[in-house]
Amino acid sequence: MQTQLGLPNKKLLFTMPIFSWALYDLANTIFTSNVITIFFPFYMQQVIGGNEVLDQLASTFISYANAISSLFIVLFSPLLGVMIDRTGKKKAYLVPFTLACIAATLLMGVFAGGAHSFIIGGLPFSVVMVIFLFMIAKFFYNTSLIFYDAMLPDLIQDEKKTPIVSGFGVAMGYVGTLIGLGIYPFIGEQYHWAFIPSALLFLLFSLPMMFLYKEPRRAVTTSKSFFSGYKEIVVSLREARAYRSIWLFMIAYFFFNDAIATAIAMMAIYAKTITGFTTGQFILLYLVSTITAIVGSFMFGFVNRSIGSQKAIAWVAVILMLAIALATLAINQLMFWIAGSLYGVAMGAMWATSRTFIIELTPEEKRGQFFGLFAFSGKVSSIFGPALYGTITLLLAETGNLASRVALGSLIILVAIGLLILLRIKPSAQVNTPS
């Protein structure tokens, strides 16, 4: 079901396989923006918070829920890659994983809207179930992306047009952000009402992928064992260590992504508890940050070409530290608006420049292997950062909002460590050969 060569780009993007694939990006972005970034944190702050100390405990639960979900993603993602290699199938796994995420999100809405007097660990049973279902939903969302991303090579025969198709999917994702946030005027401050419509929107825009996309048949020649994915990661790590520049950048990227992923997960509750943002104000800030992320990715494409990938990433790291520092010290909403805008620039630019630097550092015959390793590193970092943030807010909860400021400020240290490691890479080194 691959698209034909020679089609103009506009017609190419609206062929059924590519358009249904891109619509799925729109669909899953509704989940990540509505549930992960905005309404689950707001719901937790609403049902657990109430004063400065309780707000810190809400932050702890949000952080740990994200960290635990990421832990299981790391544990199982190598197995899922092997499933693709052994069967050649992507859609066959994507559909049930997507439906599992949607079902868990629907149940979040069911339990969040109920009142239960039964207490578990000091929390109402309904809240415990929402947290548990959130972890399940996030797990299936992230694992479904493994199959979704693997579909891209099946969509287009001309590799030169692959970036166009990939960019179309990203653009549709931003449209999904706008569509998803359209539910806010209808739910107001009743955050538990957000889960069910978000799940239904996810389902609605996934239907073309489920029913109209036909997966091409591929001959499978591999006979990998089911657990060979873990062995491949160990082998890749050993090989990466032989390429000093790649190894150093992978460690640096771990710390950069650590800070970025943690800030995304915690920015909603931080903005509300520390600087008094209303839900509407934060949604507007989120949209502005999304726009600045787009601007940052394009702008640093030119910066990258002008001064080189390593220096460009170093400047992005500096902007990221400045954004986090402003948010940590924010005493009014204006400072947080500036911080959020700078963070958007840094987020978009970091992902754009890092991909380019990875290509420059890796030998062509090992590029896919090392890209997979960097993706795995990003998943691991999504455990450490939220766990660190949540532990700080838990230990310093009695200090009130100071705990959140210290937790956010700790991310500056992570970025600084990454920057120092990045600067150890010698630009003149023969990076495409083992050291």
Q: Let me know the number of strands.
A: 2
Low-confidence runs of at least 5 consecutive residues: 1-6
Q: Class of the largest domain, according to the CATH hierarchy? A: Mainly Alpha
The total domain count is 2
The mean pLDDT is: 86
Would you write up a description of this structure?
The chain is mostly helical and 435 residues long. The protein has two domains: 17-215, MFS general substrate transporter like domains (Growth Hormone, Chain: A, Up-down Bundle), CATH 1.20.1250.20; 227-435, Growth Hormone, Chain: A (Up-down Bundle). Helix content is 79%, strand content 1%. The protein has helices at residues 9-13, 16-48, 52-87, 91-112, 125-150, 152-155, 162-181, 184-187, 195-212, 228-242, 244-274, 279-307, 309-329, 333-361, 367-395, 401-422, and strands spanning 119-120, 123-124. The protein has a two-stranded antiparallel sheet with strand order 1-2. The chain is globular.
Outline of this structure?
With 435 residues, the chain is an all-alpha fold.
Write the SSE topology.
Blueprint: H1 9-13, H2 16-48, H3 52-87, H4 91-112, E1 119-120, E2 123-124, H5 125-150, H6 152-155, H7 162-181, H8 184-187, H9 195-212, H10 228-242, H11 244-274, H12 279-307, H13 309-329, H14 333-361, H15 367-395, H16 401-422
Antiparallel strand pairs: 1-2
